[in-house]
Amino acid sequence: MSTSAASPDPASSDPSATPGADPARGSQHDAASTAGPGAAATGPGRSAAPSPGASRASSDDAAAASDRGHSGSAAVHVRDLHKSYGDLEVLRGIDLDVATGEVVCLIGPSGSGKSTLLRCLNLLESPQSGTISVGGFTVTDPDLDVDAMRRRVGMVFQQFNLFPHLSVLENCTVSQVKVLKRSKEEAKRIALANLERVGLEAKAGQRPTQLSGGQQQRVAIARALSMDPDLMLFDEPTSALDPETVGDVLAIMRQLADDGMTMLVVTHEMSFARDVADRVVFMDGGVVVEQGAAREVIGSPQHERTRTFLSRVLNPTTVDTPE
Ligand SMILES: Nc1ncnc2c1ncn2[C@@H]1O[C@H](COP(=O)(O)OP(=O)(O)O)[C@@H](O)[C@H]1O
Ligand SMILES: [Mg+2]
Fold first, then answer.
1. Model's pTM, two decimal places?
2. Where would you find the membrane-spanning parts of this chain (predicted)?
3. Quick check: 91 pLDDT over 60?
């Protein structure tokens, strides 16, 4: 797992999660504009998106999802995506779709390319070939307005990377003011509403270091939401947390899903994937091996590689005995 660098720089997304982020692309953008969490300034009412309050717990597939008010339009559309680091081909022809309002969980072994795929979606990595469109932006178009695209995509990473010298509230307002050009008053109002949403309005004046890991991750989610993203990307958001705080973060994510947010979530939390995701995509070796309704892929995987992976994740203490 590539988490050696821990420099807390929320402005450039998570450096520990973005090894090899294309420096040519990255350096064109000021710190705040690459914060990942970004969105069109459509106001805090965005959370009233499709089917507010509709429970996903009973959903089994994307068809059921459309019943809950999904527009069916593609929030993410990836075709034949290839990405290499030198001789190492990490993504070997990925096709992936996420419909507006859909929740997709991306699962797979370490090194299978999940983070790289997520990072390609908002050009923290530049793919060699293939097409990507995100929220109507053709990401692989050389003339893309990268900042405009990133404003629509919120990102939450394993390491939350809040600014340690800023208060919780300031962490949630800084990019709103810098990137979305909101007034300080409006940014504060929106930030407080989102901190309330994650149950942390009482911590607004505190520094991130005064918070538990789970609380810091909830602040990171509030920060992303404060930019009114159309799409949220989560890269193992609970992997770095103490077990007792994982549930709080998953509960926030579940609520977000119920509110209609479009979400692509890399996670090893299989119960979350089974209960919340409309669809599960299993990746291994840089390809999508299997995908389908969450309960089907997790409950009765079709491919041996999926079965092996799931049995390891679901029974982590089982030791394989060589034949
Ligand atoms: N910047 C980089 N330079 C070279 N290799 C990288 C870089 N980033 C990731 N990799 C390699 O790409 C493969 C996939 O990594 P990653 O997308 O992080 O996988 P996952 O998130 O599924 O664990 C791994 O073998 C990893 O070592
Ligand atoms: Mg990863």
1. 0.81
2. none
3. yes
